[in-house]
Amino acid sequence: xxxxxxxxxxxxxxxxxxxxxxxxxxxxxxxxxxxxxxxxxxxxxxxxxxxxxxxxxxxxxxxxxxxxxxxxxxxxxxxxxxxxxxxxxxxxxxxxxxxxxxxxxxxxxxxxxxxxxxxxxxxxxxxxxxxxxxxxxxxxxxxxxxxxxxxxxxxxxxxxxxxxxxxxxxxxxxxxxxxxxxxxxxxxxxxxxxxxxxxxxxxxxxxxxxxxxxxxxxxxxxxxxxxxxxxxxxxxxxxxxxxxxxxxxxxxxxxxxxxxxxxxxxxxxxxxxxxxxxxxxxxxxxxxx
Length: 289
What we know:
- By secondary structure, this protein is α+β, with helices and mostly antiparallel strands.
- The protein is built from seven helices and five strands, in the order ααααββαβαββα.
- The chain has a five-stranded mixed beta sheet with strand order 1-2-5-3-4.
- A hairpin with a 3-residue loop joins β1 (111-115) and β2 (119-125).
- Residues 64-78 and 252-289 have low confidence and may be disordered.
């Protein structure tokens, strides 16, 4: 009896593997891109105003043409010099910057900025209960830290050097250590401010020229020696002079390589127009302690 032929059953599995096998990769790539964009936005929201301005300057000028808030082709932020002729511009910039910070707006009332023969003096004035430092202490309050960080971020963009002073009122310091006086307190507060302002991205290591403590010897209000505004920390942005530059000319007054390499053709001799020193940074004064 002949064997029955073997029946072979072929099952076809329907699916979309062949047509949509790589679709998940596209969706995953979109998801990763969206997450990266989210993290960048969250990071930007928590950076300083100076960093935001520099980043905005780059996107406005990706080729690296120098601008007030952009960068040079070497990738470093532009540092424009401030002299006696343009120091008022720095004062306006700092004042504006402080007013733009919601957490510093109220503290701005305790900030006094004055143009002096030495430079731009920014004073953080203490109130009766202490505004920037705890009373009789070298401990910075949160508002004091925020103010000094803002000033450090802004002043780090200029080539000018900075000196820091500490001052007290005439009330003798009373503490457990009888040898610790207003002299030590004023100097220690100035050094606390210096250490904070020299954080990464803040004042450069060689930007601070002096740290001084004057105790009650240089009062802001000598008629009222116990007035709390006599307790202050002062930042002095020192003027730049021609002697501060290798060739005696501020960078903003020099012609760029492109200008010197490709002079305009003319039948008459080209005129030598000098450019005045440029300006940069923005903000407002900071309070003194």
